[in-house]
Each structure stands twice: as structure tokens, then as C-alpha cells.
Amino acid sequence: MEHCCERGKQSGISFTEKPVRVCRRHYTPDQAALVEDLEARGARIGMQHDDDRGVMSWPASAHFYVPSRIALLEWAESHGLKRASTYPKLHCVCWPTSKRLTRCECGHNGTQFYLSDSTWDHMSMWTTRNGSRAVVVFQPYQVTPKGQAVLDEWHARDDVHVEVREDSWYGHGTKFVGIWNAEFAPAAVAG
What we know:
Elements: E1 2-3, H1 6-11, E2 20-21, H2 29-44, E3 48-50, E4 55-57, H3 66-79, E5 81-83, H4 110-115, E6 124-128, E7 133-138, H5 145-155, E8 160-165, E9 176-181
Parallel strand pairs: 1-2
Antiparallel strand pairs: 3-4, 5-6, 6-7, 7-9, 8-9
Helix pairs in contact: 2-3
């Protein structure tokens, strides 16, 4: 991967799909303005600054790729969502409908379950603006047969809506898998 300087190699971001990382010191004025705008919008959807480095901490590929940041912001803003304010200990498809903070209630054994199947890659959790659990998002390169079985199981429930799309804000050929609390599922997803 190309980079503007040693600092760009460590902490730069790419403004296009072409993997060239640029650090803050080497942004063009337009790039600096874009990053400032994206960070202001990011703060409104719950993104937080990493105090050690002084940069906003974006999930997954949005941390390094501006096109992913833009797609993520458009998705979250269009659904009225915020990133979960604290990373929950409950890493499970039941998170959107569960009232629990730690122990999984659906029998999939939380984190260990997700480490065993690539369907659950690149997870992020999202709430409504008032903090209600709305959706857990996974952005895998593929949905495995084991993962599809879990999605089918959850699709049969009345309290959730499962959304699987070929495009995701993560990019790089990943799919979007969203398990929505039915109360907050977008109209296009419901049904």
C-alpha cells in the first residue's frame, strides 16, 4: 500500500478505493474540509475520538477508507441511528431485542459463536437516537451455510427482521447482514 510518508503509513486514510494512505499533514484543503465534515457528522451518530491518537474511531474499514465513512454516514443518518455508546459485552444476534447486558439468551453462546463462523465478520451495533437497541450489523465476505441457518432461524421470529444485501458500507465485496429489532426496522426491510 502506498502512503504519503511514514506517518501516513501508520495513521493515514485513503480518499478513494485506490489504496494510498494520506496523513493529516498532507491533506489537500478539499480533503481536510471533507474529513472535518465527516467527523462532525460522525460525532452526531455516536462516533468517538480515540484520545491516544486524537482521531475519530470509525468501525471497520471506515477507519481507513473515506468512501466507507461516507456510505456508513448515509446509512446511519437515513435510519436515524447512532453507534452503540459502549461496546456491549453481549455479542449476539439477540442483542437488538435482548434486555441483557452480558449473557446470551438465544443459546448461541455469544462471542464464542461468532468467532467460529465468518458470517459474523465486521460487527457493529446501532441504537435509535434515544438509545433503544435497533440493529446489529455484520459485514461478511460470504454468508456460510451455518450462518444462513442462524439467519433463517431468526427470520422466522416476529420480533426481528433480517436484512441481507449484496452491498455494505464496509465495501471490499462484503455483504450487509442486519438483524433489526422489528420495532425499528425500516419499512423496506419489514415483512
